[in-house]
Amino acid sequence: MTKGKIGVQMMMLKGKVEEIGVYETMKKLHELGFSAVEVSQIPMTAENVAELKRASEDFNIEIAAMSAGLEPMLPGLPGETLKSDFDKIVNDCKTLNCNYLRIGMLPLSKMGDKDLIMEFIADAEEMAHRLAEHGIELYYHTHHIEFQKYDGEYLLDMIKNNTTKLGFELDVHWIHRAGVIPADFICEYKDRVALLHLKDYRVGQLNVTAEDLKNIPEFMNKFTNIIEFAEIGEGNLDMKPIIEAGLDSGAKYFLIEQDDTYGKDPFDCLETSAKNLRALGYADWF
Q1: CA 225/CA 119 separation, integer angstroms
Q2: pTM for the complete prediction?
Q3: Residue 169 and residue 139 in contact, taking contact as beta carbons nearer than 8 Å
């Protein structure tokens, strides 16, 4: 039976990395039963890369994917990018036996401008071809902003329709937040998606006080912004058809991500997500 591999997006563990280090963070993931991670928002210092390698070998945890911006999110912002640190990023991938790089988001300076977006798409496709020469595949991660339409076409479809080498890391929470059915949409990207972000969608608790009702504009802001990122199985998304659509469309890695844990320990959230995924029938995907 064909199956995928469930892993963890380490963005949600950046605080743990700062607190206990890469190695101990990976050790805890191993204890929770995980054997794959995607590395994002973890500084790729020489020490962290070495510790990722050591932990990967000691705990048999695959570095499924890593993150790299094509260019800074805003001009002049510090941080590694493919345009300025290509050789270093490729070397890190080789060191960690990682064949997937993902761009986390469209640069903020490009948003809302179709011409600048088309320039970004062309640059990303060129970079995907360049990375392919080193055996590395480049993927683009989605939010809801990619479902803005330009001349009747989703921004995300603009990227797909103007590229052949660039792949996609679809995020099921953000697809749903954009008002699109995740399982159906994933199928439209068959053979262009190897990475899928599993993230549930929950309507948070609305607590209304007398003070809230004294300022209706503030209340409405609270009312319309109670959507939360949830542990898998603790929200409103029907995950099984989503996961099956991902598998049918070529996804290999199914990465748990929760942008905010609302004060809970992220390891506890991951344990809940893992328990619920096992209960859904995916125990052998860990």
Answers
A1: 33
A2: 0.95
A3: yes
